[in-house]
Amino acid sequence: MTPAAPQAAAAAAMRIECRGVGHRYSAGRGLDPVSFTLTGPGLAAVTGPNGSGKSTLLRILAGLLRPVAGDSVVSVSGREVPAPERRHVTGWLAPELQFYGEFTVRENLDFAAEARGLAHGREAVLNAARAVGLSERLGDRAAALSSGLRQRLRLAFAILGDPPVLLFDEPGSHLDEAARERLAAFIQERRTSARVLVATNDSREWSLADERITLGTRDLGDPS
Amino acid sequence: MSASRSARAIWAILRKECRSEWRTRYGLNAALLFALTSLTAVSFAAGRLGDRSDLLAAFLWIVLLFASLASLSHTFVREVEGQTLPMLRRVASPTEIVAGKLLFNLLFLVVIELLTIPLFLLLMAAPAPQWGAFLGVLGLGSLALALASTLIGALIAQTRGRGALFAGVSFPLLLPVLAAAVNGTRAQWQNLPVASELRLLAAYGAALLAVSVLLVDHLWEE
Fold it and tell me: What residues does each domain of chain A span?
């Protein structure tokens, strides 16, 4: 894994807080209200049974979903980042993240870097691709990638530009053992300078966490 | 800083749309096929319409509208059906996304017009336009058309039955554009003033732009 550019100062003054955050897609589906506070860099795991709202919680923190109850705070360098601007400080990986099939891996990442306005976009793309083991696949069309390589592309997209907050939803899915080890090493490295939240039920992933947020039962959202 | 960042995002989205269209030829081929076949068919069936400025004006806008509409209405639908909207939302704000796609739709219309209008003037034996008035009507009409179709496309992208919905919603919104554009185009061929049509198209375009600015930040909120 390539050392990520540390954003230690930003991470040190970092806070993620949920105050009674809940969401409902329909009756019985969504996220029961959850409250917790995470400060500084580190690794937190979000666990819970299927349908408990792990992905929903990460989508809310990423600014992609407005909760129907409560509010969430993502604060970086002492500044609260409003939900519509969180794409600039968070990296989000989720199974629903898809890419333009007619573009190559490099074109997808170049587009993301350019649209985000990253200062050294080309360099950021190469660093992200190297970090997830996609350097040799930059010229491949996204549509031709296997599910494991597509997951690596999602990971590269999430870490592009080294955001201080990383929101990983089932990051190990579709990955082979070597890629899982690479991912674990990457998370171990980033947890010292970034706040990493991993939504997972895989004990290999959540057992490494400093804090664990368990969803699925009302009012059991505090870190333990 | 924020304005330049937005400008970069809009530029990136415009380039992405152009590259995607170039690779897939999703809209361009269909648009050109429609324009070519309809012009050829009418030319064979009705002959030259050089002395019928009313028919010429209506036919020109029908060709432009239907040639471009399939692509214009699908710029957002393609993102939803390709499941790329979450990725797009992660790299740009709704305003930047809509602005980038609006610019692409405008560019697409310009390309269609550049290829279609010379052919139209030739095959229909249309009289030489008063270029200032003609281009004024064409430019403002295209802007209003692109604004209306982009706004509707953005609004209905995540609805069910969006194909049918687009037709239903776009009819009342596009009708004023078509009426003013056809009137203006006819008037310039009849050596009549087109100022009122230009004002109407400009005002309608401004109203659509204002509505877009008010609505786009609330798009795709779940």
Answer: 1-89+163-181+190-224, 97-162
Closest CA to A196 of A207, A187, A205: A187
In chain A, residues 165-224 whose CB comes closer than 8 Å to chain B: none
Q: What letter would DSSP give residue A81? A: P
**In chain B, which residue's Cα lies nearest the Cα of A86?**
B90
Which B positions 47-86 lie with beta carbon below 8 A of chain A?
Answer: 82-84, 86
Pick from A95, A91, A82, A84: which is nearest to A109 by CA? A91
Question: Is A98 an 8 Å CB contact of chain B?
Answer: yes
CATH classification of A1-89+163-181+190-224 is 3.90.226.10, yes or no? no
- Spans of all domains in chain B: 2-218
Which of B25, B83, B90 should we substitute to test contact with A (largest number of A Cβ atoms within 10 Å)?
B90
- Please judge whether A117 and B9 are an interchain contact, meaning their C-beta atoms are less than 8 angstroms apart: yes
Q: Does A29 touch chain B (CB under 8 A)?
A: no
pLDDT, tens digit only, all 222 positions of chain B: 488 889 999 999 999 999 999 998 878 888 899 999 999 998 888 877 778 888 999 999 999 998 888 788 788 888 988 999 999 999 999 999 999 999 999 999 999 999 999 999 998 888 999 999 999 999 999 999 999 999 988 888 878 777 778 878 888 889 999 999 999 999 999 999 999 999 999 999 999 999 988 888 777 766
Check if A142 contacts B (Cβ < 8 Å). no
DSSP string, A86-140: GGGTEEEE-TT----TTSBHHHHHHHHHHHHT-TTHHHHHHHHHHHHT-GGGTTS
B147: number of CA atoms within 13 Å, CB side?
23
Q: Residue holding tokens 């579709």?
A: A174
Q: What is the ipTM of this complex?
A: 0.88
Q: Does B89 touch chain A (CB under 8 A)?
A: yes
Within a 10 A sphere around the Cβ of B179, how many other Cβ atoms?
A: 13
User: Chain B interface, mutation test: which of A57, A109, A111, most B Cβ atoms within 10 Å?
Assistant: A111
Q: Which of B67, B204, B188 shows the shortest CA–CA distance to B141?
A: B204
